[in-house]
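Feature request, filed as a ticket because there's no other form

It would be nice if the structure record came with a short human-readable summary line next to the tokens. Right now we just get the raw output. Example of a typical job, pasted below so the devs can see what we mean:
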Amino acid sequence: EWIGMQGGDVNFFDDLSLLPSAPFSFEVKSPESGYLSSMETTQIGLAAGELGAGRKTKEDRIDYGAGIVLHKKYGDLVKKGETVASFYASDKEKFIPAERRFLSALTFSQTMPETKKLIFDIVD
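Raw output as currently delivered:
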């Protein structure tokens, strides 16, 4: 309703094929085994930007088909070589620099990390 009231096309909700899609994809593999104990979300966002899903300057064009799908989350046990994310872009040359940045944002440990609270408090 919110999108429709602002003049947006609500048909996307019923037919995801209407969304832009990138012609190329790339699987990011884990460089090591262990528990995913930290994810620097700023660096992951910058990696998405390198794929074209954001812009460095206001003149840059956003590629609405570019982006990252995470297959693993904080606390997951990951095996070396397992896919941790999928990248999407219109230019294959963007995958390697984005992968480098993305993997630098991940930290693995041999022990399961502490469970983090999803809800800190309720305001009423």
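Something like this underneath would help us a lot:
The first helix runs from residue 2 to 5.
The chain has a mean pLDDT of 94.
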